[in-house]
Write a structure and sequence with these properties.
The structure is a homodimer. Chain A is built from 9 helices and no strands. The longest helix of chain A is centred in the middle third of the chain and has 28 residues. Chain A binds a DNA duplex (30 and 30 nucleotides) through helix 3.
Chain lengths: ~210, ~210
DNA sequence: TCATTTAGTGACTCAAAAGTCATTAAACGG
DNA sequence: CCGTTTAATGACTTTTGAGTCACTAAATGA
């Protein structure tokens, strides 16, 4: 009689993904140095030794995990920054709303924090993070703003700095939620923030005379 | 003949401050888990055992260090958020300029990053950080905005979210500098950012019709 | 069905770093 | 100047967790 639930399973293909997935949870929760590979193994449902079949060292696993996190979200970025031909006034609210939705759920915020935290120890990851994600978003946005300036739609000014004015408050909002949770009196609702900030950055907060 | 430079010195009062100062450098550089108390001791010019005369454990030293960092900068905050009776249009550029100056030099940016990084492991510190620093800045700013709204100076909207619109881009700029350094093509000059963002958040980035 | 291969295991080794404590010597008071 | 106190030391002990490897058993195929 064949055992339907053998103690071990040999699944060479599935393991790396499962391990990285488990590792992401653990590394996001504790940071690189304070994470224990035993915990990763338990969460992935394998023995510690199994980790070493697929990854040379703890650092190796961390790099693979962070890379995965970054490149996965890269697709989302590509989609968001895809050619948009409307006016800036139309684009900004949509962009910020979409960002609020993406950041609100899932573990993106935690990943951002982890990468921030480890960027000193892993400058190569900081570089990937910069080149593949941050520079793309800011660069694409700056291009769109420059085009809008050429059309006379946006006033004079450094497009790169305008881009920071647009996304900065959303980043702050996300980090606020991530670090302090939503129980703070000052914790922003990300959807409301997206809506109001879009208006603010486009029209200014001063009352019209 | 008296030795003018004895091998040891007994300076019960000065030690804790010196140790915390050394610890701040090390913790900011490596984070809590990856920091070695031996390094702290060397940097403070004492032996490892001496640390344990003044602090129970590594965690204890870390808490004391972070507290010190937060409360020291608190004074700067108090000063910045001191009663300001001009219009919002006058306040915002001054406030952002001052923030740019403070963040640009010194180790404040590093401290912010460290607290962000360790806030999961030390939720009590996150609370202090929140109550003593973040909530004060945002709260004070929100008050000033609400008052300006009452005067008809600022348009309708949530004052707390307006506050985030004001400070968010500066925070992003500081974190950008801290994580990626100033060699990135997109690295913002903090002074320029302060100037342009003040204009943007007050007037909006759309050209006037 | 049995032999062979190799994914998977977890008790073990080993290095690193937290934390201890017997010893040393600076300060101080008589 | 000497005796006493205690800040300071650093070699030592202990703990923790990364990394190893002899062994186990699931798959494969002859």
């Amino acid at each position: 009689m064949k055992d339907p639930t053998p103690k071990r399973r040999r699944r060479k293909d599935a393991r790396p993904g499962e391990i990285i997935n488990a590792a992401m949870d653990v590394f996001v929760e504790h940071g690189f140095a304070a994470s224990k590979l035993t915990d990763v193994a338990i969460r992935a449902g394998v023995a510690k030794g199994t980790l070493y079949l697929y990854f040379e060292t703890k650092e190796d696993l961390f790099r693979a995990t962070a890379r995965q996190a970054l490149t996965t979200n890269l697709e989302a970025v590509e989609q968001s920054s895809a050619a948009f031909n409307g006016s800036i006034a139309d684009l900004v609210p949509v962009l910020l709303k979409r960002a609020a939705g993406r950041m609100g759920d899932g573990r993106i915020a935690g990943i951002v924090r982890m990468v921030l935290a480890e960027s000193r120890a892993f400058p190569d990851l900081a570089r990937i993070w910069h080149d593949e994600v941050v520079a793309r978003i800011l660069g694409r946005l700056a291009e769109l703003i420059a085009a809008a300036q050429a059309r006379g739609e946006v006033r004079a000014g450094d497009p790169g700095l305008f881009a920071i004015s647009i996304v900065g408050p959303m980043v702050l909002g996300v980090l606020f939620q991530e670090v302090f949770g939503s129980d703070s009196r000052h914790a922003p609702d990300l959807d409301l923030l997206a809506t109001q900030h879009a208006e603010t950055v486009l029209q200014g907060l001063l009352a019209k005379p």
